[in-house]
Design brief:
Layout (H helix, E strand, L loop, with lengths): L4 E6 L5 H14 L4 E6 L13 E7 L7 H8 L8 E8 L6 H11 L3 E9 L10 H23 L10 H15 L4 H7 L2 E2 L9 H5 L5 E3 L3 E3 L8 H5 L5 E2 L14 H4 L3
Parallel strand pairs: 1-2, 1-3, 3-4, 4-5
Antiparallel strand pairs: 6-9, 7-8
Helix pairs in contact: 1-4
């Protein structure tokens, strides 16, 4: 890494990817770098400062990532050779989707110096017990530290695509594009249990795409990304989804870390 000033832009639905980003930043700062972490959804990609090395972290969804994250990456300006490193978090496998994000950035004239994918506790469907979560973290976090140190020491590597991953990336890109359709949004659309909701406004404040507004009770518009952040952090457990098993999710960090400025 030529430029020791680092800006890390991260989208984290319920905390896993942000947990990783914080550790990467900590390791970089301990290795003669100056690293700052930003919420990806709070930054206009067209205005980012290309005078720093850029880190981009995101959550894997459907062996791809969320539509607005893909759009954020697509909207980045021409890189003019700016160095960038990539990382993501996943419950099991992403089929090397990060290698195809690298290709997108390379076409935009960014120099991808490192990429890695990290297995973290599931936050969708198969929610593990605390022991299994701790076991995953104990295996993953040393890998995160090693990844960050390799970036600081210019000894890093990049995930390479293969034929299977290339096919899946095309297929899953099409699938996530369907999320924006009204029919899909009607299937995804969450419901409020009015007997539980205390109108605290937390769901409105933490939605990354402004899909929730407060009327008499929270109301959901038609561009949900299904990051399940609102469900996960609702203190009353008042938000319901027909797509979640027993409405269970995992939160990787406290609420205050998710809504930092």
């Amino acid at each position: 890494m030529k430029n020791k000033n680092v800006k890390i832009y991260v989208f984290s639905g319920t905390g896993n990817t942000l947990f990783i980003a914080k550790k990467i930043s900590e390791v970089l700062n301990n290795n003669s770098c100056v690293s700052v972490v930003y919420r990806l959804e709070a930054v206009n990609p067209k205005t980012i400062n290309l005078d720093s090395t850029i880190g981009i972290g995101f959550t894997v969804a459907c062996w791809n990532t969320y539509p607005f994250v893909r759009k954020w990456i697509d909207d980045l300006p021409n890189g003019n050779g700016t160095e960038v490193f990539l990382f993501n978090s996943m419950g099991d496998s992403s089929l090397k989707m990060i290698s195809h994000v690298s290709k997108i950035l390379q076409k935009k004239d960014y120099t991808v110096i490192a990429s890695s994918e990290f297995v973290m506790p599931n936050n969708f469907l198969l929610i593990e017990n605390d022991n299994k979560k701790e076991l995953k973290l104990s295996k993953t976090m040393p890998k995160v530290e090693k990844f960050a140190k390799s970036i600081a020491e210019n000894n890093c590597s990049v995930v390479k695509p293969n034929v299977i991953s290339s096919i899946f990336f095309i297929v899953t890109t099409f699938i996530i594009s369907l999320w924006k359709m009204k029919s899909s949004q009607k299937i995804i659309k969450f419901k409020i249990d009015k007997n539980k909701c205390n109108k605290c406004n937390i769901c409105v404040d933490i939605c990354p795409v402004g899909n929730i507004s407060m009327k008499e009770y929270p109301e959901f518009s038609m561009h949900c990304q299904f990051c399940v952040r609102c469900i996960s952090y609702c203190p009353q457990k008042a938000i319901q989804s027909r797509l979640l098993y027993k409405n269970k999710t995992h939160t990787g960090l406290p609420l205050g870390d998710i809504i930092w400025k």
